[in-house]
Amino acid sequence: MNRLQRTLAKLDGLPAPLRGAARNFALRRAVPLTGTAGLDFVALTPERSEIRIANRRPVQNHIRGVHAAAMTLVAETATGMVVGMNVRDDCLPLCKSLNVAFKKRATGALRAEAHLTAEQRALLASQTKGEVTVAVTVTDEAGIEPIQCEFVWAWVPKEKPQSQDLAGQTEARTRA
Question: The domain spanning residue 67 has which CATH number?
Fold first, then answer.
C-alpha cells in the first residue's frame, strides 16, 4: 500500500456521508488546480478512478460547455490518480505525453474513468522507472464520448541515485 492509498484509507473511518467531501478536500488541497476546477473524486481504487466535473461557469467555454482545457484536466486527473494509487513511495509520477481528440460537443457535466491492468499495476510496483499508457474514457451527461484521450505516464525515482550524483560531480571537476 503506497502513501496515497494509506491517506485515503484513513478517511474510511469517517461516516459515509462525509467520506466524499473529505476525499475531495484532501485531494483538492494536494493538487490546487483540481479544487479551482471543482473536480469531484467519485471513486479511487488501485484498479480504477472516476472523476467528475460539473458544467459550471468557471470551467465553461464561449458556448457554455465544459472548456477543452477542463475536459483534458478531468481526463488527466483520472489517469494520474490511478497511477498515483499504484506508484511506489520512492518514485515520482509524471505525465509524459497526452493525445486528446475532440470528437463531439459535450453536453452538461463530464465523467472520466481510468483503468490500469494487473500487468500495469505489477510494473508500477516492481520497477523504479518506467512508463504506462493509461486507458481513460470521458463521457458527458448524454452518454456520448466528446473526447478520446491517451495518456502516457512515466515514473522515476524521487532522488537521483548517489552514484550518478558523484559521477556528475567528478565529471564537472574534470572539465573545470
Answer: 3.10.129.10
